[in-house]
């Protein structure tokens, strides 16, 4: 038995012993799971699963042991993930603490900042959100105008963020603020960590077309933030911000690749059901071709992910290539939901109420949600610009 095989046996037995039956089969997307933080009280089984994983460092499988992680190698972390996927189990902990601000703190945080924040992420004590976009600064993020003015050992922050995912459920926000309004726009920005319990921080949820309200406007009114909460140097936050965006885009791409792993099987099953063709090939050639085309693209995408994982193993942080991951993953996901809705036909027209199965209602909402995939984390047009300039060197 190789080392990895014996690791798999060990982790499988851990999962079998500790994952509550009620959670098995419940994971649909990569973001399904416990987000932690001061505001969410987890259901008893979710908490049991979280506690068991925490004891083994498995809430942050690949993070080092000294911050509370399990110190797994990339290959071992993937085995853990595969064992979760085998039982359709949600990971014990999810969120942007693990995928965005955590990795950025490893790269840019001081030792004191790492000691303060990383263990609290691992222990699920703090839920983070991202304060980048503003009403006047989306794609052109460097135009942001939230101001931070220094007063002794504090900054006083005033301004507004928008589209802050789950701000109302979060405890801390990592925010970009303007500290030098006279400098060229990228040069006057600072990356600041803000405790959302600080007086002057407030949030207001925004309702979406899908009926859900996953994000907010976030307001800062004379919010006093210690200078010690600056990541990197004052006025040099743009470099940190871009590094975090690399992690964000990789995370979106990887998460969506996980979501689409079973897409072909699911789509074929749905098509067989909807078209009344339990066996043999599907009768509708157009649908057959569309499913095959998406399936081929998904496989190519899986190879690309593997190649980028390989460079990550060699110590290369995700750079502009993460834009490729993001754009392809989000467009593939949209293609999949377009096909699902087309296959469902009239069943995809339901919004709520009798006459529709919960599965069909959920699919319609997922289809609408997938519209946002090519906007969040930077729009497709912006990703194409980055690829043209920084990957292909056309700028
Ligand atoms: C689901 C979701 C969650 C989000 N969560 C967060 C969050 O947690 N925190 C956060 O800070 N932000 C978040 N955002 C905001 C997101 O980052 C922005 O929506 C995105 O960067 C685009 O900015 P904008 O909406 O202002 O669009 P705009 O920048 O106004 O763009 C409008 C249109 O113009 C195009 N365009 C703009 N500039 C160019 C250009 N140079 N070349 C070609 N085309 C261009 C765009 O592609 C787009 O089609 C989220 C967005 C969504 C949809």
Description:
By secondary structure, this protein is of the alpha+beta class. The chain is 45% helix and 14% strand. The protein contains eleven helices and eight strands. The strands form two sheets. Strands 1-4-5-8 form a four-stranded mixed sheet. A four-stranded antiparallel sheet has the order 2-3-7-6, with no helix packed on it. Helix 4 runs antiparallel to helix 5, helix 8 packs antiparallel against helix 9 and helix 9 packs antiparallel against helix 11 (380-391). The protein binds flavin-adenine dinucleotide. Flavin-adenine dinucleotide is lined by residues 129-133, 138-139, 163-165, 215, 372, 375-376, 378-379, 381-382, 385.
Topology:
Elements: H1 3-18, H2 44-55, H3 74-86, H4 96-108, H5 111-122, E1 128-131, E2 147-151, E3 154-165, E4 172-178, E5 189-195, E6 201-206, E7 215-226, E8 230-231, H6 237-259, H7 263-274, H8 285-313, H9 322-344, H10 358-370, H11 380-391
Parallel strand pairs: 1-4
Antiparallel strand pairs: 2-3, 3-7, 4-5, 5-8, 6-7
Bound molecules: flavin-adenine dinucleotide (FAD).
């Amino acid at each position: 038995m190789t080392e990895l095989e014996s690791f798999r046996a060990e982790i499988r037995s851990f999962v079998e012993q500790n994952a509550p039956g009620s959670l098995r089969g419940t994971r649909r997307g990569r973001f399904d799971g416990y987000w932690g933080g001061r505001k969410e009280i987890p259901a008893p089984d979710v908490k049991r699963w979280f506690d068991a994983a925490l004891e083994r460092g498995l809430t942050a499988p690949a993070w080092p042991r000294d911050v509370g992680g399990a110190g797994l190698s990339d290959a071992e972390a993937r085995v853990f993930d595969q064992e979760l996927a085998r039982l359709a189990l949600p990971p014990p902990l999810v969120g942007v603490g693990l995928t965005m601000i955590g990795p950025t703190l490893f790269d840019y945080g001081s030792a004191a900042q790492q000691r303060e924040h990383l263990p609290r992420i691992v222990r699920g004590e703090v839920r983070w959100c991202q304060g980048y976009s503003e009403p006047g600064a989306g794609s052109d993020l460097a135009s942001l105008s939230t101001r931070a003015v220094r007063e002794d050992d504090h900054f006083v922050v005033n301004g507004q963020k928008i589209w802050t995912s789950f701000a109302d459920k979060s405890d801390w926000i990592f925010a970009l603020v303007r500290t030098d309004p006279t400098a060229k726009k990228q040069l006057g920005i600072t990356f600041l960590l803000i405790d959302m319990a600080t007086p002057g921080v407030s949030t207001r949820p925004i309702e979406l077309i899908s009926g859900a309200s996953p994000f907010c406007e976030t307001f800062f009114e004379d919010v006093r933030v210690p200078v010690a909460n600056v990541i990197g140097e004052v006025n040099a936050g743009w470099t940190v911000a871009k590094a975090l965006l690399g992690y964000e885009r990789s995370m979106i791409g990887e998460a969506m690749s996980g979501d689409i792993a079973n897409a072909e099987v699911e789509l074929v099953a749905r098509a067989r059901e909807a078209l009344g063709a339990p066996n043999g090939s599907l009768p509708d050639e157009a649908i057959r071709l569309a499913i095959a085309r998406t399936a081929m693209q998904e496989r190519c995408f899986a190879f690309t992910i593997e190649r980028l994982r390989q460079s990550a193993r060699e110590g290369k942080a995700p750079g502009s290539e993460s834009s490729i991951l993001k754009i392809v993953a989000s467009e593939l996901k949209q293609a999949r939901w377009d096909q699902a809705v087309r296959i469902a036909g009239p069943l995809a027209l339901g919004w709520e109420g009798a006459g529709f199965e919960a599965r069909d209602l959920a699919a319609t909402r997922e289809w609408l949600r997938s519209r946002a995939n090519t906007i969040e984390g930077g729009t497709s047009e912006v990703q194409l610009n980055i690829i043209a300039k920084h990957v292909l060197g056309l700028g």
